[in-house]
């Protein structure tokens, strides 16, 4: 595509220093630049892409987009814009011919439940006969083909490329997790969503957003954008958990029909006769005047909410209730979400991704319901992330557990012992708290399993599906499920 065609109508302040040329690709990382590429210099949180303009040019960039006064060699086009991050989203969508306009787009946002909800919606669409694309924390998927994941929501240029690949492979519906970071940082700009789902909002990412009001405002952007400047035909829907205290704020942002769901009136899709067991949840919900009785292989009250959101997505698309039921009841589970590690032991071991106060409370509430003996919790908090949630999680863990084992969890560039001290500030406020500190996560998991007896439940929280531990700026292989299985093997042999 010619540079002049690529830039036509986009918010460009100035183009200088070179004649028109054909653009072969777009990159925001200079190491990924190839001859003829447009390099977009992004001001990041750890480095500034403007420092790498010379490297991009050396690798063959035919044009560079900047928001700072950075010189470029003669013969290379310089595109000056006000905000290169927003420009990246706009120009990438143009370069890849607006792929989101060619498929149904469903975005799921919220602090907890995004991964499970997207997987459940994806299952419903597949059961309905649609070819789907899935974009999320655990994996990206085109039909049955699995692709790697770097971010919950990819950077805008990567996302547009992925969507173009999906459109090229005749995907009909894309279901994706939409993080608050992605909304604020323009990653999903030019993604025209047809359905947006709000799961809940609780404390997380305040290191990025500053306060809960800004965090909520970020989530609301997905709903405020529904139906604005629409290029696709067909209805738009907002699906909202009406039990969440922030529901009214999200609803106010909507200009499209709203479907609410929850466990309490006035939810439009109201779960009744909820039954939670160690092996799953059951509940009834009325869909278009028809009672739908669901028996899922996912457990926990939080999964009733996730399933209701998926039911609502099916209802929005007029998918038959029988199809919705078959799809949801066929989902065996989601990796790292209340995942059981069973090696024949006489106690339960659960691995879960819970890494927020609300997430941990939900998981421990569910675990308590299936615990005949003691509830033992292994958890830590990630480094270089919201410090304010650490004492909150510490307090929740010791209040809800018979024994809490405080350990390390992706300390990144922080001192693991300081993170633990932040957690203990909340632990020590709880009278009679029973806890131990074992900074080595492998040793912590082994000790918890060694301490468990018949009827106990051991919850290993925080990492879920992750297969790494980040220490400093390096990743080391580490999988809570593997470590639990090894500990059980050692314990049982």
TrEMBL record:
Carboxylation is probably crucial for Mg(2+) binding and, consequently, for the gamma-phosphate positioning of ATP. Residues 336-464 form the Mur ligase C-terminal domain. Residues 108-313 form the Mur ligase central domain. It is found in: Cytoplasm. Keywords: ATP-binding, Cell cycle, Cell division, Cell shape, Cell wall biogenesis/degradation, Cytoplasm, Ligase, Magnesium, Nucleotide-binding, Peptidoglycan synthesis. The keyword Hydrolase does not apply. Belongs to the MurCDEF family. MurE subfamily. Catalyzes the addition of meso-diaminopimelic acid to the nucleotide precursor UDP-N-acetylmuramoyl-L-alanyl-D-glutamate (UMAG) in the biosynthesis of bacterial cell-wall peptidoglycan. This is UDP-N-acetylmuramoyl-L-alanyl-D-glutamate--2,6-diaminopimelate ligase.
């Amino acid at each position: 595509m010619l540079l002049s065609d690529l830039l036509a109508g986009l918010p460009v302040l100035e183009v200088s220093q070179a004649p028109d040329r054909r653009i072969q690709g777009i990159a925001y990382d200079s190491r990924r630049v190839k001859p003829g590429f447009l390099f977009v210099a992004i001001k990041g949180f750890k480095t500034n892409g403007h420092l790498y303009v010379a490297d991009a040019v050396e690798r063959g960039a035919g044009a560079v987009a900047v928001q700072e006064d950075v010189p470029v060699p003669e013969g290379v086009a310089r595109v000056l814009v006000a905000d290169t991050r927003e420009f990246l989203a706009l120009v990438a969508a143009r370069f890849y011919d607006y792929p989101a306009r060619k498929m149904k787009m469903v975005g799921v946002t919220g602090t907890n439940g995004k991964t499970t909800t997207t997987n459940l919606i994806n299952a419903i669409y597949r059961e309905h006969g649609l070819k789907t694309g899935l974009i999320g924390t655990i994996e990206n998927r085109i039909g049955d083909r699995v692709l790697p994941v770097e971010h919950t929501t990819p950077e805008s240029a990567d996302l547009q490329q992925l969507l173009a690949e999906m459109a090229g492979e005749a995907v009909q519906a894309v279901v994706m997790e939409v993080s608050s970071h992605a909304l604020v940082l323009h990653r999903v700009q030019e993604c025209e969503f047809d359905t947006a789902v709000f799961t809940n909002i609780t404390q997380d990412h305040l290191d990025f957003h500053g306060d809960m009001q800004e965090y909520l405002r970020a989530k609301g952007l997905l709903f405020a954008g529904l139906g604005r400047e629409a290029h696709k035909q067909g209805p738009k829907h907002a699906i909202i958990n009406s039990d969440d205290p922030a529901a009214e704020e999200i609803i106010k942002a909507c200009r499209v029909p709203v479907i609410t769901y929850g466990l309490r009136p006035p939810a439009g899709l109201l779960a009744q006769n909820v039954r939670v067991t160690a092996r799953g949840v059951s509940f009834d919900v009325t869909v278009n005047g028809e009672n739908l009785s669901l028996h899922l292989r996912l457990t926990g009250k939080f999964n009733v909410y996730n399933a209701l959101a998926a039911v609502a997505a099916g209802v929005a698309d007029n998918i038959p209730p029988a199809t919705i039921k078959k799809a949801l009841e066929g989902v065996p589970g989601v990796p790292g979400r209340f995942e059981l590690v069973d090696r024949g032991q006489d106690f339960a071991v659960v691995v879960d991704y819970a890494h927020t106060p609300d997430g941990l409370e939900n998981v421990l509430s569910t675990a308590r319901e299936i615990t005949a003996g003691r509830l033992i919790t292994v958890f830590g908090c990630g480094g270089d992330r919201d410090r304010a949630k650490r004492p909150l999680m510490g307090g929740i863990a010791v209040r809800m557990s018979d024994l809490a084992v405080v350990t390390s969890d992706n300390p990144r560039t922080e001192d693991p012992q300081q993170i633990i001290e932040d957690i203990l500030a909340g632990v020590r406020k709880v009278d009679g708290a029973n806890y131990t500190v074992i900074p080595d996560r492998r040793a912590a998991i082994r000790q918890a399993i060694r301490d468990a007896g018949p009827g106990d439940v051991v919850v290993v929280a925080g990492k879920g599906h992750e297969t790494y531990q980040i220490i400093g700026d390096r990743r080391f292989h580490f999988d809570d499920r593997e470590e639990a299985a090894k500990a059980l093997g050692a314990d049982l042999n």
